[in-house]
Design a protein that fits this description.
By secondary structure, the chain is an alpha/beta fold. The chain is built from 9 helices and 6 strands. It has a 6-stranded parallel beta sheet with strand order 3-2-1-4-5-6. Strand 4, helix 6 and strand 5 form a beta-alpha-beta unit.
Length: 208
């Protein structure tokens, strides 16, 4: 059975840290397809600074240039209303793994890709236990030898559904990247060339 990954986020804008994480997860777990899903109206997250279409285009430029494993999926942008990860996961599994009738078979072949900081709040996600029953968490470590579950409220059994990726550390966040762009600092090292050109041409993230 093919193996799939789901990597969601605001991607506002997508940067090389996102790309490295997606590649590392695909390599580490032998993923055939990784769905890159720009978030719609996500609970508890910021309202995007770039519009939906621009974020979608920047994801295409970042992830699909030279890696056929990545698919940019706009279902959350089309859905409207508040988007929950569990809804997106259910839809993707129903569409791409209809023969996988048990949660265990899904859990072996689907993963949710995220950064280590999500572990502290994962217990607050909508139907998070169902996510863990039907997918494993592919988490990028911040540092070797750290304590990734230090602030997590996941039970020992729930923690067994977490697998870690030794990805190259992210050097910048989207928040820091937007701040650099706003004050006209050079940001070209932190995004792929096409995204750097697009942001500059369209005047994204600048308030003048």
């Amino acid at each position: 059975m093919p193996k799939f990954g789901l990597f969601g986020g605001s991607f506002d804008p997508p940067h090389i840290g996102h790309l490295r994480l997606a590649r590392s997860a695909a390599d580490a777990f032998g993923l055939d397809t990784v769905f890159i899903v720009p978030s719609g109206n996500s609970p508890g997250k910021h309202v995007p600074f770039a519009d939906d279409y621009d974020r979608f285009l920047m994801c295409e430029m970042t992830f699909t240039n030279d890696d056929s494993r990545f698919v940019i999926d706009n279902r959350e942008l089309r859905r409207g209303g508040v988007s929950y990860t569990i809804d997106t996961l259910r839809e993707l599994q129903s569409q791409y793994s209809p023969e996988a009738v048990t949660a265990a078979s899904l859990a072996n072949n689907w993963c949710l890709i995220a950064g280590e900081d999500c572990l502290a709040s994962f217990h607050t996600w909508m139907d998070y236990r169902e996510i863990l029953r039907t997918a494993f968490l592919a988490i990028a470590r911040r540092e070797q030898g750290g304590a990734p579950f230090k602030h997590s409220r996941l039970s020992p059994n729930e923690r067994s559904h977490v697998r870690f990726i030794d990805a190259e550390p992210t050097v910048i966040s989207s928040t820091e990247l937007r701040a650099a762009i706003q004050v006209r600092q050079d940001f070209s090292d932190f995004v792929v060339p096409g995204v750097a050109e697009f942001i500059t041409r369209e005047g994204l993230y600048r308030q003048d």
